[in-house]
């Protein structure tokens, strides 16, 4: 485990007036470091290797993967934001990927200090480039604990971000079909 990080967490908590021994928190710095190592495990990782061998399907219809759960850390406050990612893509030439690949891509991208807006764009880019799609729509719906926990106390507030590319951005019919596949009314 990263001893430098453990010392930094110990120093931070002590500077905040917490007596780690008296509070029964003597192992807390190690637990905090382990948690952040996991939550930042996407740093330096590429999604390129996730796709593996792509599949040739006999279908040219759109594909939707809905409600992929994620947890990430707000880069401004280092507290969690979490929610669900939904992806619709239009394969090019019938080339698709296994469904589990999408949750792996979301995990890599969300396990970095992140902004929801950037994360949405990075997922769209990873799908578009990894599968060479004709188009992709990504919708991220999340709760930002930095909003809910601070003095704003906007409890239950959700933020929704989208990224749209290719034919799903250019063709109104495809765009509407993608939204409808996810059970949302399209926004025009």
Keywords for this entry:
188 residues; GTP Cyclohydrolase I, domain 2; alpha+beta; 2 domains; 38% helix
Secondary-structure map with pairings?
Blueprint: H1 3-15, H2 28-39, E1 55-56, E2 63-74, E3 80-90, E4 95-96, H3 100-110, E5 113-114, H4 116-131, E6 135-144, H5 145-149, E7 159-166, H6 167-170, H7 172-181
Parallel strand pairs: 2-5
Antiparallel strand pairs: 1-4, 2-3, 3-6, 6-7
Describe this protein's structure.
There is one protein chain. This protein has 188 residues and is α+β, with helices and mostly antiparallel strands. It folds into two domains: 3-39, no CATH class; 55-181, GTP cyclohydrolase I, C-terminal domain/NADPH-dependent 7-cyano-7-deazaguanine reductase, N-terminal domain (GTP Cyclohydrolase I, domain 2, 2-Layer Sandwich). Helices cover 38% and strands 25% of the residues. It is built from seven helices and seven strands, in the order ααββββαβαβαβαα. The protein has helices at residues 3-15, 28-39, 100-110, 116-131, 145-149, 167-170, 172-181, and strands at residues 55-56, 63-74, 80-90, 95-96, 113-114, 135-144, 159-166. The strands form two sheets. It has a five-stranded mixed beta sheet with strand order 5-2-3-6-7. A two-stranded antiparallel ribbon has the order 1-4. α1 packs across α2 and α3 crosses α4 (116-131). It starts with a helix and ends in a 7-residue tail after the last helix.
């Amino acid at each position: 485990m990263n001893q430098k990080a453990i010392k930094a967490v110990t120093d931070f908590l002590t500077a905040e007036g917490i007596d780690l021994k008296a509070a029964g928190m003597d192992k807390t710095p190690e637990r905090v470091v382990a948690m952040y190592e996991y939550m930042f495990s996407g740093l330096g990782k590429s999604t390129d290797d996730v796709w593996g061998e792509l599949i040739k399907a006999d279908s040219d219809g759109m594909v939707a993967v809905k409600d992929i759960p994620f947890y990430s850390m707000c880069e401004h406050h280092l507290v969690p934001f979490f929610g669900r990612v939904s992806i619709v893509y239009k394969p090019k030439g019938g080339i698709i990927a296994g469904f589990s690949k999408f949750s792996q891509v979301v995990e890599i991208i969300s396990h970095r200090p992140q902004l929801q807006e950037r994360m949405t764009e990075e997922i769209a880019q990873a799908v578009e480039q990894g599968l060479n799609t004709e188009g992709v729509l990504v919708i991220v719906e999340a709760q930002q604990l930095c909003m809910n926990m601070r003095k704003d106390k906007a409890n239950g507030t959700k933020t929704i971000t989208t990224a749209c590319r290719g034919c799903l951005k250019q063709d109104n019919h495809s765009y509407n079909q993608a939204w409808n596949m996810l059970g949302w009314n399209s926004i025009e």
